[in-house]
Structure to design on (306 residues):
């Protein structure tokens, strides 16, 4: 949940993410063939499989973070798909993987979870808990937990959010160490190591994987800024994550470059239309440009670029 708390301080989080981000074990990578065969619910989910493994319960409902990860996997596509479409898709997953009574209960949890998310969006606009100090972050965390209690009972909160709360407290502890000006680098490393010692083996493995991922991302960004070729980027990725993963990342790079090029052409055409046409004709001309260059789903993503 502190990923929401820290939305206003993304730069700080990036700097300390290797030591501080969520430590839950990452799901096992899906086989390449399975990823390629999965139908796409939304463009942003291309090449992925649904997060949150809810099948091990053999049809019974288990209230845990895996269930919420399945919800969030689809809820992340808001803007590409309508909320009703998203809820219907989640419902199909639940009906397929759970027994009827369990699926019905999971859908009730989903409805409450969506109400909770809406309440969080309102909470984000509260100036009383704005700010980047540790004390303010703790206030925000308390506000989130209080908001949560409006939608879930104690048993549900313990089952769905206990692990996340523990991770959030650990994250705050790490940030306290990172921001302590009385500690030198060696002392900070020692205190961080003491926190690491409290982690389970699975959490330690997840953290090691995250650090490796962030390190690769930083190396790729640095190489791009220095004009690295596609082959050089592929070599960097292959050395870190293997040939198949490097191929998938290269494909994503190509898609992103194509999308950005299309956005750039559209923005230039839009600026020309605004400059050349009277105000009364601009909206119609801009919509024609959108229709000519983007699908209805793609148009829902344009707001982030205009």
């Amino acid at each position: 949940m502190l990923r929401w708390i820290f939305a206003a301080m993304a730069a700080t989080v990036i700097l300390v993410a290797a030591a501080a981000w969520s430590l839950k074990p990452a799901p096992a990578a899906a086989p390449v063939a399975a990823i390629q065969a999965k139908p796409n619910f939304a463009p942003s989910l291309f090449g992925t499989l649904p997060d949150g493994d809810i099948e091990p319960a053999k049809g019974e409902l288990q209230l845990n973070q895996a269930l919420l990860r399945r919800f969030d996997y689809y809820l992340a596509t808001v803007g590409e798909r309508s909320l009703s479409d998203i809820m219907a898709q989640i419902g199909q997953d639940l009906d397929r993987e759970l027994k009827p009574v369990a699926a019905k209960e999971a859908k009730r949890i989903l409805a409450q979870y969506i109400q909770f998310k809406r309440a969080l969006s309102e909470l984000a606009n509260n100036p009383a808990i704005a700010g980047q100090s540790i004390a303010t972050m703790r206030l925000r965390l308390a506000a989130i937990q209080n908001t949560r209690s409006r939608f879930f009972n104690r048993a549900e909160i313990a089952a769905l959010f206990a692990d996340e709360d523990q991770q959030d407290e650990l994250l705050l502890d790490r940030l306290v160490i990172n921001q302590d000006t009385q500690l030198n680098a060696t002392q900070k490393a020692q205190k961080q190591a003491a926190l690491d010692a409290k982690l389970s083996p699975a959490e330690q493995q997840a953290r090691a994987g995250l650090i490796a991922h962030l390190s690769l991302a930083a190396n790729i960004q640095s190489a791009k800024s220095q004009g690295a070729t596609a082959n050089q980027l592929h070599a960097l990725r292959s050395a870190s994550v293997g040939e198949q993963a490097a191929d998938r990342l290269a494909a994503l790079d190509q898609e992103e470059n194509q999308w950005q090029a299309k956005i750039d052409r559209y923005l230039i055409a839009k600026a020309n239309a605004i400059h050349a046409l009277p105000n009364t004709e601009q909206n119609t001309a801009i919509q024609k440009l959108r229709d000519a260059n983007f699908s209805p789903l793609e148009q829902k993503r344009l707001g982030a670029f205009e």
